[in-house]
Amino acid sequence: MPKDYTVGKTSVFWDVVDFPVPEGRGIREIVESALRRKGYKGEVSITVYGDKDPFSPEETAKGRFTFVERIKKYWRLNKMLVDIGWWSMETPEPHYNPANVVVVAKNIKEDTEFVYFLSDLNGSNFNVLLVVPDDCEPEELPLPTVNLAWYWKSFVQGGEPMPRTELKALKARGKPRLVL
């Protein structure tokens, strides 16, 4: 019986230097709008990475976000990888409890530890979702490990992810990867 990931918890890991929050919009509003449109209704947690805290004191006081300060891209991506690892270890039995991970970051190239880790998560019954730049090239996407992908503009507008046919075509254009 296929798992219903739409009822599972979703954790979002967002690099706000790569994808700044549009003025007048809220991170939670953007995330929940896109997820709800696809029928996701589980609890959502959001961790944000950047060079300065994008939240107002009111948002911070509500405790609805976690902010991680890292100035350089290398350290933001590595910290995100570690945080996703901790999150996955704290997620109880993904075989029985649907869990989703959303990564909102640029420059996740193939043949990196980050891509291999996303692949391992996918193989361990986590649902891997990704947000990519509007002008993203297939070789820049860890597509074999992704179940849904949004272009940035569509994600921000609460729109649909890439159609399955487009996602499949992008996967076909990208370099084949050896997954062990």
UniProtKB/TrEMBL annotation:
Q: Which GO terms describe its biological process?
A: regulation of gene expression
A Gene Ontology MF term for this entry? Answer: RNA nuclease activity
> What is the residue range of the signal peptide feature?
none
| A single GO cellular-component term on record | peroxisome
Q: Where is the NYN domain?
A: 9-133
Q: Which InterPro entries match?
A: Marf1, NYN
Name by which UniProt lists this protein: NYN domain-containing protein
Organism in which the protein naturally occurs: Noccaea caerulescens (Alpine penny-cress)
